[in-house]
Design brief:
Elements: H1 3-11, E1 28-34, E2 37-44, E3 53-59, H2 66-73, H3 75-82, E4 85-89, E5 92-93, E6 99-100, H4 112-126, E7 129-139, H5 141-152, E8 160-163, H6 169-174, E9 183-188, H7 212-223, E10 227-234, E11 237-243, E12 251-256, H8 269-272, H9 276-291, H10 295-299, E13 305-306, E14 313-316, E15 321-325, E16 330-334, E17 341-344, E18 351-357, E19 360-366
């Protein structure tokens, strides 16, 4: 599909957002000079964030902007609860003067791999953020770009998630990283902009992969996963979890029926059953926990649980716990837990549950 056609698809849905800059401990727009070009980005640092916190990059789609994706994706709300920093960089314009990310495309000569790598290193140093817990996710072209980072800079970005994006033709033909990282793909089966089956061949290097299932299989093979679990998160979503890979790496794959070129948000949960940013953070959080070397390190976070998804045992970072079905039925309650205690939930059926401690509610999946 030609870039100008993509423009028409996107522009009909975009609107102008005027953001008021705020002081530290909120989102603020900054600039960073890369190769003589002033590049802009928004940075959200929640109040109460600690040293060595994670850093998540969120990349906008083709024709879009950092302000637009920050407005709709909901990642800042999750960052408030989980205490990680979020960076929303702004892409430059391509040869058609359209905002984009150069995911090894031929629509520009911008060195976005270099820019994002340098910006990540700068933010890690400037704000004392964890270089081992730095991740990238993105919508559409931002998903393409995240795959480029997985191919070329896995030393900096330790896991990526793509929403409605895929691998560019160049990346599909040439991706052979020395370090393999976990991958998460969310895609609508009815996506008319980046087709699920890969049946397109637009100019500029956008096309070339054989569809998102082939991309999934590529990373399953790279990560050498040995187990697969499928969980119905929603009638439109049979989630796939590939585990047991190199360094405990996982590949998550969310193919959503009755879903197009969209980021799953709260107002659309009747069709998707998920919040895109919430699932992405759970995936990144799993990577963080798998890299942890001690239980105390895992429990230093604000999460109620570990791991997620779980099979049998769950470690609870709270002294009280209620477990509900998605339908709202209470199936477990205790206010006599010891913080850090592991409880046996092997008798629960596979599926999704809500864990509640006080006013903190989080979604858990058993597989």
């Amino acid at each position: 599909m030609k870039p100008n056609t993509l423009t028409q698809k996107y522009l009909s849905a975009l609107f102008l957002i005027i953001l008021t800059q705020v002081i530290c401990f909120s989102q603020e727009q900054f600039t960073y000079n890369h190769n003589g070009t002033e590049r802009s980005y928004f940075l959200y640092i929640p109040e109460g964030i600690e040293d060595d916190a994670p850093l998540v990059f969120v990349l906008h789609g083709y024709t879009s902007s950092a302000a637009v994706i920050m407005n709709y994706c909901g990642m800042n709300d999750i960052a408030d609860d989980e205490k990680f920093a979020v960076c929303y960089p702004q892409g430059t314009t391509d040869f058609l003067n359209i905002p984009h990310w150069n995911a090894n495309l031929s629509v520009s000569t911008t060195d976005d791999i270099g820019f994002l790598t340098e910006l990540a290193n700068y933010l890690q140093t400037e704000y004392n953020l964890n270089p081992d817990h730095t991740f990238s996710c993105g919508m559409s072209n931002g998903g393409f770009m995240s795959y480029s980072l997985a191919c070329e800079r896995p030393d900096v970005f330790k896991a990526i998630a793509s929403v409605t994006g895929t691998m560019s033709g160049y990346d599909w033909a040439n991706c052979d990283p020395d370090e393999i990282i976990p991958i998460f793909q969310i895609h609508g089966l009815d996506d008319a902009v980046v087709p699920y089956d890969g049946n397109w061949n637009p100019p500029g290097g956008w096309g070339g992969s054989d569809g998102v299932e082939s991309v999934r299989d590529f990373w399953i093979e790279k990560n050498q996963t040995t187990e697969i679990t499928r969980v119905e998160l929603h009638p439109n979503l049979l989630a796939e979890y590939y585990s047991g890979g190199l360094n405990n790496n996982q590949v998550w794959f969310y193919p959503i029926t009755d879903w197009g070129h969209e980021w799953p948000t709260e107002g659309k949960m009747d069709r998707s059953g998920i919040l895109g940013s919430e699932e992405i953070w759970q995936f990144f959080e799993l990577v963080i926990n798998n890299q942890s070397t001690s239980t105390s390190e895992v429990l230093s976070s604000n999460t109620l649980h570990y791991p997620n998804p779980f099979r049998e045992d769950v470690t609870i970072n709270a002294t009280d716990l209620e477990i509900y079905t998605i339908g709202g039925s209470l199936i477990y309650k205790s206010n006599k837990l010891i913080k850090g205690e592991t409880i046996d939930l092997s008798e629960l059926d596979k599926g999704m549950y809500l864990f509640r401690s006080g006013n903190n509610i989080q979604k858990m999946t058993k597989f």
